[in-house]
Design a protein that fits this description.
The chain is α+β, with helices and mostly antiparallel strands and 456 residues long. The chain is built from 17 helices and twelve strands. Bound molecules: protoporphyrin IX containing FE (HEM). Protoporphyrin IX containing FE (HEM) binds next to helix 8, helix 12 and helix 17. One of its GO terms (molecular function) is heme binding.
Length: 456
């Protein structure tokens, strides 16, 4: 008898189950049709089928996570990386070498390069630019003018990101071009993502040509920004200088392609998400005049009769709560994906290596199990005494873990400042040609928000 043979047997690993298949699939098509037709409604009802459910998208299986706790576990676990069809199609836009799509050591190195520009203690340095842009945003309109909120929101979002992080001269013309390019590109990317009909998108059709032109202009703009900086010979202490001086793991300068992709990877999420959120904030100020008036009163109580300034932001707690509540109900980033790098376990279920996993901040942030009166716009739910009982991870519009948005403080500061500046000066009415219905794309935003500006 050997020693081996008397060794007690290792306890058997508990048998992991496969997550249940979500109901409502259509034979042959699975859940793809429903997901494409009504993605928000479809993802929100999955919680009734289980904490994790399997979805069939044609021959492919995807896993959907539906509880706040498990989305937190997913985002914090090293067993998953950025990947999946969403990111693969975004790579066509963002490039393969930018921080938003890289994984592993490259991603860690790139985060180290960009992170200092977003540190909490650095944000006040951007204060004067944010202030100037918020004031210019609110000063552009004439009483009674009809505002096209899409182009207005994009303009201010692009200008703030570009002026703060890339310290360039961002005239309206460039912001406009970037906004048009991004709108077309994001719309086209989303279509390509939900209807992956490869060769069809290469046909010389007007829509394809428009998409190709917009994508080319986006990349041209980024090249212009980088070339202009180099030609200036200046090295201001900003994100662009950090990128131009970054070294790879061997200590060599990073490639031109990586610099380009990094600028794209920062400018694109930096403008589309902020612009969409500003549109929703304008919609909220219109739909809820009582909260708009409360924001205005708060601004007055903090500033007296001077214009709101960056330093006031931390005192504007109701305004901040309005921003957070708008982001809860209308999160710009409404869907996130991960890919399992190894076979693993989540919520007691087996997740195979290579599995694509999806979850929706929109569904999580509207879950009636987390939020009383879950569809009500109620900024006071963010008062400390009320928000303390919320389930962990029930509100993470910037995600968490190693892929958390680096720009959470930068974004909240500008969104609060813009909301306060605008609400102190204007009331809004929606005009008959306007549509504030939710338009689902890579981000969520109102379909075509047109508002009449009325001085306060
Ligand atoms: C990543 C949300 C604004 C740059 C992310 C992610 C979310 C997010 C949810 C994580 C994605 C994931 O977990 O897979 C938002 C929201 C914004 C916002 C809601 C505003 C309302 C910005 C701005 C910038 C920015 C202004 C830059 C100027 C980035 C970058 C990443 C990212 C570079 C990739 C990070 C990485 O993968 O390591 N954002 N974002 N975002 N965001 Fe934001």
């Amino acid at each position: 008898m050997t020693l081996e043979s008397v060794k007690p047997e290792a306890p058997e690993a508990p048998q992991l189950r496969n997550p249940p298949l979500a109901g409502g699939g259509i034979p042959g098509l699975g859940h793809g049709w429903k997901l494409a037709r009504d993605p928000l409604g479809f993802l929100a009802q999955l919680r009734d089928h289980g904490d994790i459910v399997r979805l069939k998208l044609g021959p492919k299986t995807m896993y959907a996570v539906t509880t706040p706790a498990l989305t937190g576990e997913l985002a914090l676990s090293p067993d998953y990386e950025i990947g999946g069809p969403l990111w693969e199609s975004l790579e066509g836009l963002l490039g393969k070498h930018g921080v938003a799509t890289a994984n592993g050591p490259t991603h860690r190195r790139q985060r180290r390069t960009i992170q200092p520009a977003f540190r909490l203690d650095i944000i006040p340095e951007y204060g004067p630019i944010m202030e100037e842009e918020a004031r210019a945003f609110a000063a552009r309109w004439q009483p009674g003018e009809i505002i096209d909120c899409t182009s207005e929101s994009f303009r201010v979002a692009v200008r703030i990101a570009a002026r703060c992080l890339l310290r360039g001269h961002y005239m309206d013309e460039r912001a406009e071009r970037l906004s048009i390019a991004l709108t077309t590109v994001f719309r086209g990317m989303y279509r390509r993502m939900v209807i992956p009909a490869g060769p069809l998108y290469r046909l010389p059709l007007p829509a394809n040509r428009k998409f190709d032109r917009a994508l080319a202009d986006l990349h041209l703009l980024v090249d212009e920004i980088v070339a202009e900086r180099r030609a200036s010979g200046q090295k201001p202490d900003d994100l662009l200088t950090a990128l131009l001086e970054a070294k790879d793991d061997n200590g060599d300068p990073i490639t031109e392609q990586e610099i380009h992709d990094q600028v794209v990877a920062i400018l694109t999420p930096g403008s589309e998400t902020i612009a969409s959120t500003i549109m929703w904030l304008l919609q909220v100020l219109t739909e809820h005049p009582e909260h708009a008036a409360k924001v205005c009163a708060e601004v007055e109580s903090v500033t007296g009769d001077r214009t709101v300034a960056f330093d006031d932001v931390r005192k504007l707690s109701h305004t901040n709560n309005v921003v957070v509540e708008a982001m809860r109900l209308r999160p710009a980033v409404w869907i996130l994906t991960r890919r399992a790098v190894t076979e693993t376990e989540l919520g007691g279920y087996r997740i195979p290596a290579g599995a694509d996993i999806v979850y929706s901040p929109y569904a999580i942030q509207r879950d009636p199990r987390s939020y009383a009166e879950h569809l009500e716009f109620d900024p006071d739910r963010w008062l400390p005494e009320r928000s303390k009982d919320l389930p962990k991870y029930a509100m993470r519009p910037f995600s968490l873990g190693n892929r958390k948005c680096p720009s959470d403080h930068f974004s909240m500061a500008q969104l609060t400042l813009i909301t306060a500046t605008v609400a102190a000066k204007w009331r809004f009415e929606q005009v008959s040609e306007s549509s504030d219905a939710t338009r689902v794309g890579i981000t969520l935003r109102p379909h075509r928000l047109l508002l009449k500006a009325i001085p306060r």
